[in-house]
Amino acid sequence: MNKISIGLAIIIFFLIGFSTAAHAQKNEVKDNACVGCHTMVGATKGILNDWSMSKHAINNVTCDSCHAADQGDKDSFTHNGFLITKAPSPGDCSKCHPDQVKQFNAGKHSLGWTKMETASRYKAIPNDMMRASMCEGCHSIGKVYADGSAGKCDSCHTRHLFSAEEARQPEACETCHMGLDHDQIEYYRTSKHGVITDLDRNTTRAPTCVTCHADGGTHDVSQGITLGSVSQGAFISDRNSGNDYITSPDGIIMRSITQEDFNSGRTTMLQICSRCHSESFARGVLEQADEIKRQSDAKVGEAIKIISDLYNDGLLDPMPENRTLNPVTGNKLTLTGHQTYSNTSEIEAEFFEMYKYALIHAWKGAYHMNPDYAHWYGWAQLNLDLEKIKAENRTLRRLAELEKALETEKTGTKAGVVPGFEGFVAIVALAIMISIILIRKRR
Length: 443
Ligand code: HEC
Ligand code: HEC
Ligand code: HEC
Ligand code: HEC
Ligand code: HEC
Ligand code: HEC
Ligand code: HEC
Ligand code: HEC
Known about the structure:
mainly alpha; 21 helices; 56% helix; binds heme C; two-stranded antiparallel ribbon; single chain; 5 strands
C-alpha cells in the first residue's frame, strides 16, 4: 500500500471515527470501525490476524468490546476519535465472563502482583525499568489495573487468540513455572505423567497441569493445595494464617493451615488422582511428598540455628548492621522470607541457595512425582549445602578464636612483656591456619 492510499484510509476512518466518537464516549463504539481501519492501513497486523482466528471474531466481539473506555477511566486516551485503553482488564472481561473472573480472584494467581510488590528482593532491584523485565514479567499474572481489578487474563490464553485449548497445554504455564526456584514444568515434563503427554499429545491417559490444578475448568488454581503451596509452602498448626506468612517451628517463614483444611484440600486432590489410580496408591504418593517436605524443612531448620548462633555471637562477616540495610527488615538477621541475595555474608549466601533452590526442588519435585528432582537436585543438594554451612561455621569460629588469641598476645606485648616461645608458636600457627583457610576458599 502506498503512502497516498494510507492517507486516504486514515482520512476515511477519521470521518467514521468522528461520526461515532459521540457513541464512543458512552462506551458504544460502532462495530468494526477499529477492525476496518487497522485492516486498511495495515496497523497491528499480527494482532488482527490472531483476533480473526479467535472465538471472539466469530461472535462479533471486536476490538472496542474490550478496549473501549469510559469517560474518566484513569488509563484511557483518545485514539482517532475513540476513547480507548491500551490495557483491557479482567473488569472488562467480566462483562461477559463473570464466573471465570470470580474463580480467578479466589485463587493465588490474583495475589501475584501485590505479594511481589511487598517483597524485599523486589525493592532491592535498582530501578523500575529493571523490575519490569524481571519480577513483573511473571507476577503480572496478578497485575492490578487502573479500574482496581487484578489478573492478566492473557497470561495463559495469549492475546489476541484467547484460546481455551492453548491454555490447557502445559506450555501455557511454562514461562513462569520454571527455573531454579519453582521448576514445575520440568518436574512435570520428566515425570511419568509428562512423558506420556509428550509421547501422545492427544491422550487423556495422563494428567496435564490443568487436570490437577484447574479441575472442571475452574480458574481457582489453589484448589486442593495443602502443605505444597507456593513459595515455602505451609505447615500444620491450630490456625489458618490465610495468605499471611508466619514462622514455622523450623524457623522458615511460610503459611500455616489447620488439620481440617489439610484434610479437605487433600480430599479434593485425591478425587482427581483416583480417576486413574486407586485412592490408596495416590494417597501414599502424596504422603511421601509431605514427609519429604517435613524432613527437608528440618534440615533447613538446622542451618537457621547455626547461622542465628553466629549472629548472636557477632561472628557474621559482615554483620547485618554493617551492610546496606535490607529494604524491609533493616539491620535484622533475615533468613527466608525477605532474605536478599545481595549485601549478605558468605554463609548466608550458601543458605540462600539451600532454602530457595535445593529445599524447593526436594518437596515440589516430590509433589509432582519426579524422583530425580526430589532426590538429586533436592535432598542430596540440601544435605551438601548443610555440610558447607557447618564447615563455614567452624571456620568462622576458629578464626574468631585465633583473632582473640592474637589480640591477647598484642595487649601482652604493649604491657612490655617480650613475646616468649609460646607467643611465637601462636603467631606461626595463626599464619598457617589463615593460609589453609584462604587456599581452601579459593578452591
Ligand atoms: C483511522 C484509523 C484507526 C481507527 C479508526 C482505529 N485505529 Fe487503532 N491504530 C491505528 C494505527 C495506524 C495505529 C498504529 C499507531 C502506532 O503504531 O503508533 C493504531 C494503534 C492502536 C493501538 C495501540 C496504541 C498505542 O499507543 O500503543 C490500539 C490499542 C488501538 N489502535 C486500538 C484501536 C481501537 C480499540 C479502535 C476502535 C475503537 C481503533 N484502534 C481505531 C489506526 C486506527
Ligand atoms: C477479548 C478482549 C480483546 C479484544 C477483542 C481485543 N483486545 Fe487488544 N488487548 C486485550 C488485552 C487483554 C490486552 C493486554 C492488556 C495488558 O497489557 O494488560 C490487549 C492489548 C492490545 C494492544 C497493546 C499491546 C500490544 O501487543 O501491542 C493493542 C495494540 C491491541 N490490544 C489492539 C487490539 C486490536 C487492534 C483489536 C481488534 C482487532 C483488539 N486489540 C481486540 C484484549 C482485547
Ligand atoms: C462482549 C463480550 C465479551 C468480552 C468483553 C470478552 N469476551 Fe471472551 N468470549 C465472548 C464470547 C461470546 C465467546 C465465545 C463463547 C463460546 O464460544 O461459547 C468468548 C470466548 C472466550 C474464550 C474461550 C475461547 C475458546 O477457545 O473456547 C476465552 C478464553 C475468552 N473469551 C477470554 C476473554 C478474555 C480474557 C476477555 C477480556 C480480556 C474476554 N474474553 C472478553 C465474549 C466476550
Ligand atoms: C504469567 C506467569 C504465570 C503463568 C503463565 C502461570 N502462573 Fe501459576 N503462578 C504464577 C505466580 C506468580 C504464582 C504465585 C502467586 C502468588 O501467590 O503470589 C502462581 C501460583 C500458582 C499455583 C499455586 C497456587 C497455590 O495456592 O499455592 C498454581 C497451582 C499455579 N500457579 C498453576 C498454574 C498453571 C496450571 C498454569 C498454566 C495453566 C499457570 N499457573 C500459569 C505465575 C504464573
Ligand atoms: C492459569 C491460566 C489461565 C489464566 C490466567 C486464565 N485462564 Fe481462562 N482458561 C484457562 C484454561 C486452562 C481454560 C480451559 C478450561 C477447560 O475447559 O478445561 C480456560 C478457559 C477460559 C474460558 C472458556 C470457558 C468455557 O467454558 O468455554 C474463558 C471465557 C476464560 N478462560 C476466561 C478467562 C478470563 C476472563 C481470565 C482472567 C480473569 C482468564 N481466563 C485467565 C486458563 C487460564
Ligand atoms: C498429577 C497432578 C499434578 C500435575 C499434573 C501437576 N501438579 Fe502441580 N501440584 C500437584 C500437587 C499434588 C501439589 C501439592 C498439593 C498439596 O499441597 O498437597 C502441587 C503443587 C503445585 C504448585 C504449588 C507449589 C508446589 O510446587 O508445590 C504449583 C505452582 C504447581 N503445582 C504448578 C503446576 C504446574 C505449572 C504444572 C504443570 C507443568 C503442574 N503443577 C502439574 C499436582 C499436580
Ligand atoms: C520466571 C517467573 C518469575 C520471576 C522472574 C519471579 N517470580 Fe516470583 N514467583 C513465580 C511463581 C511461578 C511463583 C509461584 C510458584 C511457586 O512458588 O512454586 C512465585 C512466587 C513468589 C512469591 C510467593 C507468593 C506467595 O503468595 O507466597 C513471592 C513473594 C515472589 N514470587 C516474589 C518475586 C520477586 C520479588 C521477584 C523478583 C525479584 C520474583 N518473584 C521473580 C514466578 C516468578
Ligand atoms: C488422567 C489419569 C491420571 C491422573 C489424574 C493421575 N495419574 Fe498418575 N499416572 C497415570 C498414568 C497413566 C501413569 C503411568 C503409569 C506407569 O508408570 O506405567 C501414572 C503414573 C504415576 C506415578 C508414577 C508411576 C508409578 O506407578 O509409580 C505416580 C507416582 C502417580 N502417577 C501419582 C499420581 C498422583 C498422586 C495423582 C494425583 C495428584 C495422579 N497420579 C493423577 C495417570 C494419571
